[in-house]
Specification:
Strand content: 15-25%
Strand order of the largest sheet: 4-5-15-10-11-14
Number of helices: 22
Largest sheet: 6 strands, mixed
Radius of gyration: 21 Å
Number of strands: 16
Shape: globular
CATH class of one domain: Alpha Beta
Length: 496
């Protein structure tokens, strides 16, 4: 049975999965959601004997129903190959009384690789399926990791171009260097003078610019997105939560009737939403613990029922979480309204106009699966040091936020359920923050010198993705103002 997708903001035309992936964002500005969340048709026992690639097929076939088996297996085979430095793709590591789901073993050592390794293949397959001959222009804003993963995924892919905007002073030096050294004739990287929310809002405005779309169409170009607003990003993320549950089952850590709590360091709400979809699909997931840093707009939302971005934007050591507009939350709002597009659109209008909205008590009751928590930078740094000293295991600053929030949750609730913490980036992306947290003096040392120190402390080799940065030349140095994004895009595409 074919699963169709609809916009969160109107009851307009439903589209197939391949169309939703190609469009990225619905024409009314809404996000595509499945009409219903399909139920897993394999038992946990069956999943427990599968490889990551086999699990990916069994999960994704339920959501991407207009892809043939050959097409979908082909995309999976190309995505989850030797770009990953472990055969397991997403291994579990035991530390601090929890299971850290390591999602950073891909080409750019961040969890975005898990979906962005496959999205280019899904997108080009979708273009063929829909007889699209236009060149696809991937337009993306990044808070640090999506940018490099998208650049690496789409670099050299025929029929595509990619433009990534990032906050010039809002990412780590390693993150920035990863992006500005990216090779590929079809890739462009632009820093903006502003924060991630400025970049993300600017990209959304460009997607909604009909005059620009018409100009591009005449030139044989069309926009699509590699951000987690694209359902082609979200569906592959569901896979690793199912895979983690199955591996815990196989290891005897999970038995019939038990549920796994999941803790996710959260900014744009895509990763934890994928865990929620996995739960709705039948994966044995209990509490969904949403971990925020000082930009705790999501924590406040789960506490009060009011989402309010009218606050100071704080730059932290966990930059991928420095977000005040969590785009994927719209998909959850849509669900707790009872799939009411008009009500969802009204709240998004309030967010755009007033910077805030409040859900009803009835909607808030439907959030019982979620818990919010937050940890400031000092608290996260203590978690890095504590876990390193006790277990010899090194966390990056984002995962450390989740570890600190989990510690607080565990102490307050006495909940002893098996818990998976999404480990979203390699500590090698943030060597200065990590080594300072461990207690090492970092002044006078470059980030690449600190990488070598981190390798000695953690007894792990420097990842290839970081090693290559030592001699990589800077290829992208364009910077623009927030209000210059449209002209910058037109110039890059030869439309100016």
């Amino acid at each position: 049975m074919e699963l169709l997708y609809r916009s969160t903001r109107s009851d307009g035309r439903k589209v197939r999965a391949s169309e939703a992936i190609l469009k990225g964002l619905a024409e009314d500005g809404g996000l595509y959601v499945p009409e219903s969340v399909p139920v897993l048709d394999k038992s946990l026992q069956e999943f427990s004997d599968m490889s990551y690639q086999e699990t990916a097929y069994e999960v994704m076939k339920l959501f991407l129903t207009d892809f043939t088996e050959e097409e979908l297996r082909g995309c999976i085979e190309k995505a989850y190959d030797d770009k990953f430095d472990t055969d397991e793709i997403a291994p579990l590591h035991v530390a601090d009384g929890a299971y850290f789901l390591e999602l950073y073993h891909g080409a750019t050592i961040a969890f975005k690789d898990m979906a962005l390794s496959i999205l280019p293949h899904l997108m080009t397959t979708a273009a063929r399926k829909n007889q699209v001959t236009d060149e696809i222009v991937i337009l993306t804003a990044t808070s640090g990791d999506t940018g490099k993963a998208a650049l690496a995924g789409f670099a050299g892919v025929p029929g595509t171009r990619i433009i990534v905007f990032y906050p010039k002073d809002g990412v780590s030096p390693i993150q920035e260097r990863q992006m500005v050294t990216q090779k590929g004739e079809n890739v462009r990287v632009v820093g903006i003078r502003g924060n991630f929310d400025d970049a993300q809002s600017g990209v959304k405005e460009l997607f909604g610019d009909r005059a620009l779309a018409d100009t591009m169409a005449r030139a044989g170009l069309r926009f699509s997105s590699a951000n987690s607003i694209n359902i082609g990003r979200l569906v592959p993320q569901i896979v690793y939560y199912v895979y983690a549950c199955a591996k815990l089952w196989k290891a005897g850590k999970l038995s019939e009737g038990q549920a796994v709590n999941v803790v996710v360091p959260t900014g744009n709400f895509g990763n934890i939403l994928a865990a929620y979809y996995a739960k709705l699909a039948g994966a044995p997931i209990g509490k969904l613990i949403c971990a925020s840093n000082e930009n705790k707009v999501l924590y406040d939302f789960f506490q009060t029922g009011t989402y309010d971005r009218n606050r100071e934007f704080i730059l932290t050591a966990s930059p991928s979480m420095d977000i005040l507009i969590s785009s994927n939350l719209e998909r959850l709002i849509y669900r707790i309204t009872g799939d009411n597009a008009a009500e969802t659109a009204e709240r998004m209008k309030e967010l755009s106009g007033q910077g805030r909205y409040t859900i009803t008590p009835g909607m808030k009751e439907k959030l019982e699966d979620f818990r919010g928590g937050y940890a400031a930078q000092e608290r996260a740094a203590l978690a890095i040091r504590r876990i390193y000293e006790r277990d010899g295991y090194v966390l990056d600053p984002h995962t450390a936020v989740a570890a600190a929030v989990y510690e607080d949750y565990r102490d307050a609730s006495a909940d002893t359920a098996v818990t998976v913490i999404a480990s979203t980036a390699s500590p090698y992306k943030f060597p200065r923050s990590v080594m300072e947290a461990i207690g090492e003096e970092c002044d006078g040392r470059t980030d690449l010198e600190l990488v070598d120190m981190l390798s000695a402390y953690s007894h792990t080799p420097v990842p290839r993705a970081v090693e290559e940065l030592r001699s990589a030349p800077v290829l992208h140095n364009r910077v623009c103002e927030r209000n210059e994004m449209k002209e910058t895009v037109k110039e890059i595409l030869g439309l100016a």
